[in-house]
Amino acid sequence: MANTGAKEAKGNAETQNLVEVGQVRIPEPPENIYCLTVIGQVEGHQILPAQSKSTKYEHVIPQLVAVEQNPRVEGVLLILNTAGGDVEAGLAIAELISSLSKPSVSIVLGGGHSIGIPIAVSCNTSFIAPTGTMTVHPIRYTGLVINGHQQFDYLQKMQERVNNFIVKHSNITEEQLRKLMFATGELAQDIGTILIGQEAVDVGLIKSVGGLKEAYGELKRLIAQSKETTPTNLASFG
Q: Which of 126, 156, 130 is nearest to 141 (CA)?
């Protein structure tokens, strides 16, 4: 009974720590693949309303660091169903995922919109469900614009950062990406393009159409390939 109470207290403390500061000791995964989810809106420096489903970037970052440090984790499966959100927070998550030393595979389920696109393409390879959608559009700015010209330059530089990342980590060209972003006629009172399943593959954003089975199989293949190319004669510490 005492052990049960201690475990419950430890679990409650870790949950509270996660809620408050986004830090928690990541449980040892039973398998060698770690599943990371990006659901709802990506929350950055501004707290979203309580009724909004969100993924807090300060929660995702410690998980990625723990994955990199944990020798038992050999690969990351990233599952996305996001409407987008904070641009810099989403780009920070994408940069961290792309810099992992371990293989990673993403699946877009439901939606991988807006800043969700860089996150989706940040993995070594990517999949999208046949019914999955991705909305490609320019960065928006909400709020009072004090200096119009300066604000325009800032948004343009931020857009270039996002575009460069997408082009670098996918097979789409800069020209094709901009064409999709500034297309008219698909979105009511807006510009951009909605890609469904195979369409995202055809333009080069996503690697393949598939679901969990295909993504899991590809990740296991990448893990096996990584083991073959990793030297085995390194001296061990301790």
A: 156
Residue 215 contacts residue 107 (beta carbons within 8 Å):
yes
Q: How many domains does the chain have?
A: 2
Rounded Cα distance, 225 and 163, in Å: 30
Q: What is the tens place of the pLDDT at every residue in 129-145?
A: 999 999 998 877 655 55
Q: Where are the alpha helices (DSSP H) in 22-127?
A: 57-69, 87-98, 116-121
9 and 51 part of one domain: no
Q: Would you call 45 a catalytic residue per the annotation?
A: no
Residue 19 domain flag: yes
Task: State the burial class of residue 32 (Cβ atoms within 10 Å of its Cβ: 0-12, 13-18, 19+).
Answer: middle
Backbone angles phi, psi at 163, to 5 degrees: -60, -45
What domain range includes position 153? 32-225
What is the pTM assigned to this prediction?
Answer: 0.80
236 part of the active site: no
Query: What are the backbone angles phi and psi of residue 120, rounded to the nearest 5°?
Result: -65, -40
Catalytic residue (one of 54, 137, 169, 170):
137
Residue 20 sits in the same domain as residue 46? no
Q: What pLDDT score was predicted for residue 232? A: 52
- Of the candidates 54, 104, 106, 114, the residue annotated as catalytic is 114
Residue 231 within a domain:
no
The pLDDT tens digits of the residues spanning 41-52 come to 887 777 777 777
Domain annotation covers residue 55:
yes
Ramachandran angles phi, psi of 167, nearest 5°: -65, -40
Residue 1 and residue 90 in one domain: no
